[in-house]
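check these tokens.
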Amino acid sequence: MNKALFGKELKANLFVSVVIAAVLAMYVTVIVSMFDPELGESLDLMMQSMPELFAAFGMATQGATLLDFMLNYLYGFLLVLFPFVLALIMINKLVVRPIDRGSMAYLLATPNSRAKIACTLAGVVVAVLALMMVFVTVLEIGSSEALFSGDLDTVGLLQTNAGLFGLWLLMAGICFLSACLFSSAGPALWVGGGLCILSFLIQMVSQVGDKFEFLKNATPLTLFDSYGLAAGDASAIGGAVILYVAGVALFAAGVAVFGKRDLAI
């Protein structure tokens, strides 16, 4: 990778990263602070009154432990959607917009290969997501220890977050490949982004009752099993490994496409 370009683009994406981090910090601390047996009974009543709504957002299991509570309210929707939005915004700034506006020509005119440039841009996306994962993990552990010392299964949380990063990598890889594959800004941004959004919607529908349960295997999101990862289940770990392999393969395909395609700039 080109260190100068990596540092420049990392700084350029600092603001949006901080905004997303602040939003996640708010949600994480609020959710952790809500862990209360008495409040849990109230939430159970809300679930019983609107079961389909809670299930659609992956919040169908109340759980008796702090980790189960966090998995239910954070990992079914919030910690999947916001990192996806962050990845989509970054890829638009790093790849889609420069190609569409012609500013990518300045990078291609430098004595750096296309593969090196593409690897650098992909590296920025992965690095920011990795830093976001570290931030979220530290925040979860810190807020849990501050509010409910000793109640959090830290090992289970770390296992879950390790698998969650594989899902982030997959979604970012889909968007990166799309950005490198299409010439027009619209398809470059929204083919990959649209596929991820469609996966979200299909998963939400599959969780509402038994009628559409068959759809749960129609998206890669089903490979992320937060409860299974927390428990160290072999099948859940296998699903996470598949997410990592697929994510790396998608980024590699994006780099290869970027290196060979005829950029209209």
